[in-house]
Amino acid sequence: MHMADALMSPAVGGTMWAATAGLTAYSAKKLRKDLDEHKVPLMGVLGAFIFAAQMINFTIPATGSSGHLAGGMILAILLGPSAAFITMASVLTIQALFFADGGLLALGCNIINMGFFPCFIAYPLVYQKIVGARPTRGRILLGALAASILALQLGALGVVLETFFSGVAALPFATFLLLMLPIHLAIGIVEGLVTAAVVSFVWQAHPEILALAPAAPAARGHSHKPLWLGLALFAVVTGGILSWFASSHPDGLEWSVKGVTGQEELAAPREGVHGALARIQDKLSFLPDYDFKKPAAEKQAEKPESWPEISTGKSLAGILGAALTLLLTGVIGLGLRRYCSPGKG
Amino acid sequence: MSHHLVEVKDLEYAYPDGTKVLRGVSFRLTHGEAVAIVGANGAGKSTLLLQLNGCLWPQAGTVRIGDFPLNKGTLSYVRRTVGMVFQDPDDQLFMPRVYDDVAFGPLNLGLPPEEVEDRVMQALATVGAAHLKDRPPYRLSGGEKRAVAIAAVLSMSPAILVMDEPTSYLDPKTRRQLIELLKTFKHTRIIATHDLDMVLDLCSRTIVLKEGQVVADGPTLAILQNDELLHSSSLEKPLCLQGCPVCQGRKAPAD
Amino acid sequence: MATIESSLLNIGYLETLSYQQTPLHRLDPRAKLLTTLVFIIAVVSFGKYEITGLIPFMIYPVALIAVGNLPPGYLARKILLAAPFAFFIGIFNPLLDRAVLVQLGPVGLSGGWVSFASIMIRFTLTVSAALILIASTGLNAVCLALERLGAPTGFVVQLLFLYRYIFVLTDEALRLMRARSLRSFQGRGLGFKVFTYLIGQLLLRTLARAQRIHLAMRSRGFDGTIRLLRPLEFHLQDAVFFLGWSSLFLLLRWYNLPHQLGHLLTGLAP
């Protein structure tokens, strides 16, 4: 469920980056204060472990497909929230850089979706509450299952919200949500079962290892600080985007209802340039998120003119121009390569 | 040169689960000695080594390094004096580049950057790995990793080198090069190993551990020729002391 | 199992690419990192129906691939491999947004298709920029740049550690999987139970390794702080690279080059 840059608006990407940066700085500071120097190598190696573990797969019974581990919850159980969050953030950064999973702008979203929710919400609020200081097999199973499901549902909700507020994809909010939540319910169950099984295995082999984690502070009083900080940050970010959205488009909510039901009318073909223009205007009022990512208000005014493709002649100009630009780009590239590589000279 | 002495007295250690690993180990090394610690798997070799620089603390007995007993107060002096080369170089080379790894110790000592630079390059030159300085550790061969791991310790100018299985994972030629390198060192060397041929080459003295106790301590040649001692300690006479096993094998049926 | 090996090879290959000595590789990592970010923000800041305005941005990846002597075919394959998510979300656009936006003679192109194409172009641009950054800079240098730009040291050290041990642990996972597949017949032994034992084993080994590494670190005076000795110098050419590209991106963002070109052409043609 990696968000991709291509579906993002700078506003959403930027706010999520800011939230991530704040949480990372907070977690790093917290770790330094705890002076848990043994965690430095432990976090590094466990991050690599998540990578390696994701490559081992298993056959999901009766489906023929295979599953693997996502890892946020297992890290939280072994490391505690702050260290697990930083570790998960580093795993996602490597994935963004080397495997183009997500992207650099979407990295903030991905760290929130797959790092913040399991580490700062699902682990302290669900897993720790259920498992407590004295783990049993049953409690571990129940806790891991419930926490993983919650984490993945929240993560899926995050993806939907971020996509919706970015406004690049046309998928309506409710439809997208109905698409994502059930899929991630299934993924969450599998993740929870795997987490529970692995944690039980480790707990039976070396019970003292799990004793490390409850030292992770979420059960104690002051420890809810990161959680509330994160939640508050999330609320502010969401609220900010919502209010921005609402003020420039007072009927935004109305639109989201209409947007799902009223598609058929829109699809009815009309003819001619005027018809097209009218439709564009329809569209502008129908898809307020279209303007959403223009930070400069004055840009809105010239918007209709900035779509010269509307008339046949102008479309031709646009396509010709684009083709020419591509051609030029290719020529420059080839020239540079010839110029720069001595081997070919 | 008394400050290069290593003295271990009545050392005892048990794992948290109660298994006793060391039961009263004592020995004393003087400056420049090369000593092998040999014994079966589980005899306590690695545990003993970890006591020498305070990675583990003895439950009874004392360790003295140079003029100081090992305790919390002398820990940083001891760690600077005793350079520890671990068995798996992947555990020891944790920094992103060879250079950073060799500089890790000197930087932690708080040395100024120019001094660090000098020490790193000198340590790398000593082990013949100067050309590897910009490589990440996972791009090194087994022999290169071992050489760099040794350099990473040398850069702190230790007086005593402690090595756990330095020749494991090495091909015969690289092993030979490593032995030749270790011969040139003037440090006090303590080597835990199963490679008895190397012991014969490198160490004048050998300590045999069995079930957490010293069962023999003396000149290497004498110990490695004592068949009974070797057998009872799960060891085997080094090949070069066995004569030619093929010819011997031929002789036997002919008799 | 092929996937483990290939993804390891992938990381290794990108790393190898970053060892090259080209003018691009020699630049300060901060200059490249910041330029990449400006590029991505410029690209995603376009409206959802923009296509022509995005095309000139191709010059950035194309020029860098050329100057940095990077393999275009390999990068293209990596981009394709990462495409599914953007593709599957984007493909709903043509289904949901069917109003005709572009009239090309008899053919009417719906807004959905236009925005879908726009998503795929954005995707290609942003993903290639990130891959080029790593292939021309290497992760270690990117981490160094991050630290100098103010990222928390704890996070940067974590990234470096993680990257260092990916190779070691993936190798270990590979050995475990080989051992499993050599002894599993007709797909038996690939199920959930064995899977959790494997992961559990790997986790125990990982924890033991972390302990050994910690000992090795403490033996060399580790006190909780990682110190890096690596001077970075921001030269004139780094500033030129960053400011030059950034102003080009701004220019291309506000000034639609293909339109002007097209107008010129259609204006000249009878």
Please provide a written account of the structure.
The complex is a heterotrimer of chains A (345), B (255) and C (270). Chain A has 345 residues and is mainly α. Chain A is built from 15 helices and two strands. Chain A folds into two domains: 5-248, Arp2/3 complex 21 kDa subunit ARPC3, CATH 1.10.1760.20; 308-345. Chain B has 255 residues and is an alpha/beta fold. Chain B has one domain (2-254): P-loop containing nucleotide triphosphate hydrolases (Rossmann fold, 3-Layer(aba) Sandwich). Chain B is 38% helix and 24% strand. Chain B has helices at residues 45-51, 75-81, 89-92, 98-108, 113-126, 142-154, 172-184, 196-202, 220-224, 227-232, 245-254; strands at residues 6-14, 20-29, 34-39, 60-65, 68-69, 82-85, 160-164, 188-192, 205-210, 213-219. A six-stranded mixed beta sheet of chain B has the order 6-7-8-3-9-10, sandwiched between helices. In chain B, strands 2-1-4-5 form a four-stranded antiparallel beta sheet, covered by helices on one side. Chain C is mostly helical and 270 residues long. Chain C contains 13 helices and two strands. In chain C, helix 3 (29-44) packs parallel to helix 12 (236-254). Chains in contact: A-C, B-C. At the A-C interface, helix 1, helix 2, strand 1, helix 4 and helix 7 of A face helix 1, helix 3, helix 4, helix 5 and helix 6 of C.
Question: Main attributes?
Answer:
heterotrimer, A: 345 residues, mainly alpha, Arp2/3 complex 21 kDa subunit ARPC3, 2 domains, two-stranded antiparallel sheet, 2 strands, globular, B: 255 residues, alpha/beta, Rossmann fold, six-stranded mixed sheet, 11 helices, 24% strand, disordered C terminus
Summarize the topology.
The complex is a heterotrimer of chains A (345), B (255) and C (270).
Chain A lengths: L9 H25 L4 H17 L2 E2 L6 E2 L4 H8 L1 H18 L8 H25 L5 H30 L6 H33 L1 H6 L11 H25 L3 H10 L1 H5 L4 H15 L2 H4 L5 H5 L9 H29 L5
Antiparallel strand pairs in A: 1-2
Helix pairs in contact in A: 1-4, 1-5, 1-9, 2-4, 3-4, 3-5, 4-5, 5-6, 5-9, 6-7
Chain B lengths: L5 E9 L5 E10 L4 E6 L5 H7 L8 E6 L2 E2 L5 H7 E4 L3 H4 L5 H11 L4 H14 L15 H13 L5 E5 L7 H13 L3 E5 L3 H7 L2 E6 L2 E7 H5 L2 H6 L12 H10 L1
Helix pairs in contact in B: 4-5, 4-6, 5-6
Chain C lengths: L1 H16 L5 H4 L2 H16 L14 H9 L4 H11 L1 H7 L1 H5 L3 E5 L2 E4 H27 L1 H10 L4 H30 L9 H28 L16 H19 L2 H12 L2
Antiparallel strand pairs in C: 1-2
Helix pairs in contact in C: 1-8, 3-8, 3-12, 4-8, 5-8, 9-10, 10-11
